[in-house]
Write a structure and sequence with these properties.
Layout lengths: L15 E7 L17 E7 L12 E2 L5 E4 L4 E4 L2 E2 L5 E6 L43 E2 L5 E4 L5 E13 L2 E15 L9
Parallel strand pairs: 4-11
Antiparallel strand pairs: 1-2, 3-6, 5-9, 7-10, 8-9, 10-11
C-alpha cells in the first residue's frame, strides 16, 4: 500500500514514530519459522529538534515483488532518494513483527522497539536466502548481488539510513520478498 498525506507537526525533542501493524505474513516464506503467526510492523521515525530542525526522510523507488532466477546472478537495485541531499547508506535488516492472529490490526499500533521475525536455521537478516556468492547489498548504491541456490519465497529487509554531516538522522525500512524460481524449465522432447 502507498499512503500519502501532508501533516505539519510541531518540532519536539525525540521526534515522532509513525507505525502501522498488521497480521500476518505469508505461510509461504521458507526462511521464517511459522510466518503466518507473525504480523509486520511498518515503521518510520521522524527525528526531533534535538537532531535537526528540518528533515525529509528518504523514499524508496516503487518496489514490486521480485522474481529472481535459480542459479543466475541477481543484479537488483533498491534505490531511495532524499530531498535534502543527505548521505544514504543501505543495509539488510531483520524485519519487524507487529500484529498476530489474536490481534491482527492493533489500535493503537504497537510502539517500538519491535521484536524481529524468527528465521529458520541458517537464515538471518544479513543471510535471508541461500546464495553463492553470498547475497550482499552495496551500502552506497543499494544494489543487491548474489546467486540464489534454492527455490522458494524469501522475506527480505532493506534499510536506508540517512546521514547529515556524519550524524545519523533516521532509517527507512523496506520489507519485500524475493521469489526464487527455476527460470529455465526442462521440457521433455517429443
Amino acid at each position: 500500500g502507498v499512503y500519502l498525506d501532508t501533516i505539519n507537526l510541531p518540532g519536539i525533542v525525540g521526534g515522532y514514530n509513525i507505525v502501522y501493524n498488521r497480521c500476518c505474513l505469508s505461510a509461504a516464506y521458507v526462511n521464517l519459522i511459522q510466518p503466518d503467526e507473525d504480523g509486520f510492523a511498518v515503521y518510520a521515525h521522524i527525528p526531533g529538534t534535538d537532531i535537526t530542525a528540518i528533515n525529509s526522510s528518504p523514499v524508496f523507488s516503487p518496489i514490486e515483488t521480485f522474481l529472481v532466477c535459480l542459479d543466475e546472478p541477481i543484479a537488483t537495485i533498491f534505490t531511495a532518494t532524499d530531498p535534502d541531499g543527505d548521505d544514504l547508506v543501505y543495509t539488510f535488516y531483520e524485519p519487524f513483527v507487529g500484529g498476530n492472529p489474536a490481534n491482527p490490526a492493533p489500535v493503537p499500533a504497537l510502539p517500538p522497539p519491535y521484536a524481529t521475525v524468527n528465521y529458520e536455521a541458517g537464515f538471518s537478516g544479513i543471510h535471508p536466502l541461500n546464495a553463492s556468492p553470498e547475497l550482499a547489498i552495496n551500502p552506497a548504491t543499494g544494489e543487491i548481488s548474489g546467486t540464489p541456490l534454492s527455490e522458494g519465497y524469501y522475506l527480505i529487509g532493506i534499510a536506508v539510513s540517512e546521514f547529515r554531516d556524519g550524524v545519523l538522522l533516521s532509517s527507512t525500512y523496506l520489507q519485500t520478498e524475493f521469489i526464487v524460481a527455476n527460470c529455465n524449465p526442462v521440457f521433455p522432447t517429443i
